[in-house]
Amino acid sequence: MHYKRILLKLSGEALMGTRQYGIDPVRLKEYAEEIKSITDKGVQVAIVIGGGNIFRGLAGASNGMDRVQGDHMGMLATVINGLALQSALEDEGIETRLQSAIKINEVAEPFIRRRAVRHLEKGRVVIFGGGTGNPYFTTDSAAVLRAIEIDADVILKGTRVDGIYTADPEKNKDATKFDFISFEDVLKKGLKVMDTTAFTLSQENELPIIVFDMNKSGNLRKVVAGEKVGTKVNL
Ligand code: UDP
């Protein structure tokens, strides 16, 4: 495999499948199978999971809720998703550990970098819940942060579109896809890959990002094998 240690970012919304809210068990199982296809090849896999299928702090704030309170709810939502993903992975026979950025010791290990790396070396999938543990951040920022901390080769952002386009492909038929694009060009062209905080952190640390369609069976394995799938953002 081309990449030995990856950080896979999955949004909470991805777990909804065709639902409007919550977790679709069918989708969860599909993702677990995709992940198994790469752990079987000896790839070390860490995952950061979002919480948007359950709660977003910003949505709470727009309804008058205190933003920090809402963000705490969002972080807890990512732990719920992490537990669901952990279950699905274990059903596939994969050893896993869930580490949380907020202390919730009966439910998940605390985030300890050296311990996370040790788990990866032993072939366990490590799921990072709780985002960065701080309000006003996103799980994209958590994904970049953890990827740097564990020295991942690449961030794989699994989405429902198959890469980065010149314009939103769901709205503009003439939009074309990039196979490769530089960090600088993403910023210059005002393209949306991750929020600015997350994106800049990745750029500063020269950590490539690959955006790809996680819902297409076999794609994750192809990306990890170094095949030309999705869009790669590099220096
Ligand atoms: N969140 C936070 N700090 C973090 C990560 C997440 O406060 O470091 C909260 C925030 O309210 C966010 C919610 O958790 O809206 C869910 O995360 P995100 O929106 O990134 O999930 P995704 O869009 O990937 O499903």
TrEMBL record:
Pathway: Pyrimidine metabolism; CTP biosynthesis via de novo pathway; UDP from UMP (UMPK route): step 1/1. Belongs to the UMP kinase family. The gene is pyrH. Keywords: ATP-binding, Cytoplasm, Kinase, Nucleotide-binding, Pyrimidine biosynthesis, Transferase. Its main location: cytoplasm. GO terms for cellular component: cytoplasm. It is found in: Cytoplasm. Inhibited by UTP. Transmembrane segments: none annotated. It catalyses: UMP + ATP = UDP + ADP. HAMAP family: PyrH_B. This is Uridylate kinase. UMP binds at G51, D71, T132, G133, N134, P135, Y136, F137, T138, T139.
